[in-house]
Predict the structure.
Amino acid sequence: MKFPFYDAPNTATIICCHAMNGEEPILFVSHDEDDGMWQFLCGKTHETDDAKLVSLEFVFKLDNSIGALIDMSCGYYAIREKQEDNWMIRKC
Ligand SMILES: [Zn+2]
């Protein structure tokens, strides 16, 4: 599948350890206002230690459904209740 993001595939992004290990689905995605950093988190609460740095391509391969968010601007986040749900995009 073609990599759809405007960012480079090796762009550093934050993912929580639960989603990275495949234990939990990605249910929260933010595109930070300050630095344009993407963050991919599951529905659990997180400590600072839970955040891992991976490439955007890694996350896309993990869950292709994040490809629906390529046009989400900085300063917005997306949530969903379950992995099968559509993303709901909100302003931070
Ligand atoms: Zn998590």
Q: What stands out?
A: The chain has a mean pLDDT of 97.
